[in-house]
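so my prof wants the structure for this chain in the tokens format not the other one, which i didnt know existed until like an hour ago. anyway here's the sequence
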Amino acid sequence: MACIQKCSLQINIVFLLTISGLLLTESSDDVENVYSELGKPIFLHVRDQSSDKYYDVKWMHADKVAGRYKDGSVQGYGDYKDRLNIFENGTLKLKISKTTDNGKYKWEICDQAGKCQSNKTVQLHLLVKVSKPVLGLTCISSTKINITCKVENGTSLTLKLFGNSRNESSNGRYLNKIQTLKKTEDIKYICTAGNNISKTQVSRMINCKGNKSQISNTFKIMILAGAIVLVIILIILMIYCIRRCYQRKRGNAECTIQSELEVSMKFREQMMQPRQPTPSTGQHFEEYSAPKPQPRNPRERGQRVEGGERAQRGEGAQRGERAQGGERAQRGQRGQRGERAQRGERGERAQRGERAQRGDRMPRTEKRELRVDRGPVPPPPR
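here's what i got, hopefully its the right format
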């Protein structure tokens, strides 16, 4: 008894530690973690192996009754009325449509007397699927490489990088590392992103010998820039050629219009000039003398040309006046000839009358002489 009394303190401490460990184990086992995606239905199961069919099962969310299965009938409450279903084994089917559906769900199993036999809590985690990661490899030199791995979408994800004896992980969306290479041959890197509902990965090969990647990228950029500059130059040349051709066509059209106007003006001037008279018999015109050789001095040439033009204008005016005077003279001559012819006819008629009277009186010999002495017959009037 004395020994037991001495060791009672140690026994009590061990007993308390055992009880606390059991309580911690039960509390950790009471909560079950379940992961799902927003917009998809989820099944929450009852973890009780006492039976496959229950009389009364009740599901609660945030201390509020969401649904209940009792004696073969299902009843939903509040916002969960049209989104849940409870089976006879206690399993809850819920369509996740809101972010507020995230949280703790508790189920209780009761008998026909209304006494609850067991219960448990389920923690629901709503996650977003992880998108495909982007792996970037850039050669800093032939012995160093810059590695980047990033993800655009996803919640509660983990990034992992493998390759060339490297194993890196991160709980964020971005991972960046610089690694020193021990070999210059092709090296494969893998970037993996995942959470409790999805997992994706991407891989790439790289070789930094002679820094080929940077050279190739620079060469590609130079080719692209040269192609852009060439296209711009071609476009400018095409615009210039089109404008030049349009200007030429416009100039040709203006030249043709000008030439037509000049021709029409010359024709009008010719039509406005007086007509040259046709020379009549016995009328003489002055012959046109050949132009004298022009002087060597340009001023004298200009003066002579102006003088020649003036002389030509004066000659043209004189010719017009002469032609008009000739026409007037011809008209006067024609009138005088007509008058003379009329007077001659009257005289002849008078003479014939007198001769006829005389002839009656005179003998035939005298009549013959009179007929011979008549003279030339005047021409008819024109």
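also thought this was worth mentioning. The first strand starts at residue 31 and ends at 37.
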